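Its record is set out here:
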Amino acid sequence: MDDMNTVVFAIRGSQTFMDWAVNFRPAPASPQGFLDDPGNLCHSGFLSVAKSMVKPVAARLRALLSENPARKNCSLLITGHSAGGAVASLLFMHMMAETARSELTELTSAFKRVHCVTFGTPPLSLLPLQKPASARHRKSLFFSFVNEGDPVARADKAFVRSLLSLYASPAPGSSCIGNLSASLIHPGSKQQQQQQQQLANNPNPNPNSSSHTNPPNNPSGAALPVWKVPEAKLSNAGRLVLLRELPRGSSGGQTVLASQVTDEMLRGVVFGDPVMHMMRVYARRIDVLATRAVTGKHP
């Protein structure tokens, strides 16, 4: 992207079985010699991949600079989706490190600025990785976009186990046996007549509930179901931006809302919609936001 004075380096996400095997090696490991804080343990699988990519990434960047020396005036943008975003985040933090030294850290000063933007990135480290507060990197950007509902953004080992249990659980207030018994009652039978009589005598089984006082999303007045979310060991990296779609406006256009959130805020939610992890969903929403930013039009 020479016309935009930006060199974009994209890290591929999970595609093969071996990639997923790396993803599920979450045991934290020390980033000693790779990041500034050796005590902030990181996902061992992603850390291993990031370390192995230092030399090839540095070689590729040197080749790009050799092809066109004017690229030294460009910014470097490291990006990735899913596991690729996790590795991109670690490589970015490695280039930002003050104590680590490698072929890649030597190239940090070769670019005007270094940025990192990721999409649907899983949790990475015990403490959230953030760019250094030094004046040197003041204008560097480190954003992580998360679609509301994307389970990978919360894919800590304990969360994944809890989510699988949630998938296997019956819907709140329902019972497979109860539903089966109800379906076996024959129309016109004495059992059905008794049920109809009970309903006529007590159409509102909850005396405290009222269609006038209960919110529209909970008309029965019953307590809403709660799923206990386990404590996560790992945290998300970067400045987190939550993307969500709002009801379409009068013009029929798509409305996307981007809200800055914290890792702590995400720890109490359950995200379980795999469709929200697809890169095309992220791309479409980012395109809507970018178009709105340029044109100033709000659907």
